[in-house]
Amino acid sequence: MWSLKKEKGVPVYVSIIELILSYIKKGDLLPGERLPSERKLATYFQVNRSTVVHALDELVALGWIIRKQGSGTIVNEGKWGISTTPRTDWRRYLEQNAFAKVNPYTEQIESMIKQVDNDALDLYTGELPLDLIPSFSFPPLTWKHFLEEEQQDDLGYFPLRQSISRETEKEYGFSLLPESLLITSGAQQALFLILQVLLQSGDSVAIEDPSFLYALPIFQAAGIRLYGVKMNQEGICLESLEKMIRQHRIKMVMVNPSFQNPTGRTMSMARRKGLIKLCQKYQIPILEDDVFAKLNFVSSDQIQPLKKLDPENVLYIGSLSKILGSTTKIGWLSAPTSVNQQLAEARKMMDFSLSIFPQLLANLALTDNDFSNKISHLKKNVEQRGNTVFEVLNQMDEWDVRMPQGGFYIWARWKKGNLRQKDWAVFLQEGLLVAPSFFFSEKQDSIRINFTRVDHENLPIFKAKLVAVTKKIAFGSSTL
């Protein structure tokens, strides 16, 4: 009777639950009947006793069995009569939920961020601190003003699209026509729509390794296979990418060529042209994530978007969230008109309506007479903080680090190889909250620091915590 059939891909404790439930429902186990002891069940099933205990705990929680001290585990008599009622196994559905699978290390970091009474330094959060976000004065607006706004169609608020078009022309010297722009609720909505409309489950996508895309659950939820392509200081390695294209029938290449998240690297112009040429050869579209475009520390002439080099083959994602704050939730996608129309139609069918409120405020910011000066001031402050953090890291022999040309991330590599689990725990113990490299890759030797969150006041705290972490990790390595 107690023979367990183990199915591939199904946790053993779930198989035990289903087996016992089937015996109860068929009447092989009667109300009030005692189950074998945990030890005996573990022997019958050839599993650890803890696995049996886990399964029995779940059955107790569901009300199918009862544990009585001195009497063992018995079938709940109160369940008799409803035992044959079909029950949906919600647990199995939830186990397939890609959005629920949060890394334990992430949970610990986010828990510490929420605790206002600790001395942790948050260099993990991917946002500007409030003191750096530019402030804009808006004219008095009434609720009726929003209701009467009629210049929004399926692609978004037309004046905002015009403003984005003008800004791109001024910054890079090429035009993104308003008709080619789809306003989205942040860059991730643009990415989500692309996954839903242009790709299908089972398709293969090439990304940089490491890449922030690796950490997004939307790919797993959509059934998209991600293949990481190694990088060097010039950007994604084209030989490796071409090999990947041939081996895995890559359908799209997704890159973050300027101030890449998490490494901060900027793809060279030669590499950009080579990437364009390679993807044209195989007729593969490129998705360019350029959300840090406004935070460049070098001339825009040195950082030409892939979209400018190949307007027809490149899908271009931009955003204001990195400079106006994440609550702004304004992004855009520049794509061929036919593509944007399909994406807009899909969004409408999914009822992902786009609020006029943030679009109108974003347009007011972009058309502010002082917008350019405020962005210049922001870039100056961000670069200054970046240089300060870089100097701290660069003076330490244990870390390999380069100053980025824009954005707000610095990538520091531990020179002595991979960091172990207990090493990562040291960061939490010292309250230095950074993003570990295993969030973005299989590598375990680097950290991502949001240097914009290190101001003059907490700079000494950052130094002290980094020195303490470095000494503890180095000491632990030397004792092996």
TrEMBL record:
Taxonomy, superkingdom: Bacteria
UniProt-listed Gene3D superfamilies: Aspartate Aminotransferase, domain 1, Type I PLP-dependent aspartate aminotransferase-like (Major domain), Winged helix-like DNA-binding domain superfamily/Winged helix DNA-binding domain
Key words of the record: Aminotransferase, DNA-binding, Pyridoxal phosphate, Transcription, Transcription regulation, Transferase
Keyword presence, Protein biosynthesis: no
Domain (HTH gntR-type): residue spans on this chain: 10-78
Gene Ontology MF: a single term: DNA-binding transcription factor activity
Cleaved signal peptide residues: none
InterPro entries: Aminotransferase_I/II_large, HTH_trans_reg/aminotransferase, PyrdxlP-dep_Trfase, PyrdxlP-dep_Trfase_major, PyrdxlP-dep_Trfase_small, Tscrpt_reg_HTH_GntR, WH-like_DNA-bd_sf, WH_DNA-bd_sf
Keyword DNA-binding on entry: yes
Database matches in PANTHER family: HTH-TYPE TRANSCRIPTIONAL REGULATORY PROTEIN GABR, TRANSCRIPTIONAL REGULATORY PROTEIN
Family to which this protein belongs: In the C-terminal section; belongs to the class-I pyridoxal-phosphate-dependent aminotransferase family.
The protein, known as: HTH gntR-type domain-containing protein
Classification of source organism: Bacteria, Bacillati, Bacillota, Bacilli, Lactobacillales
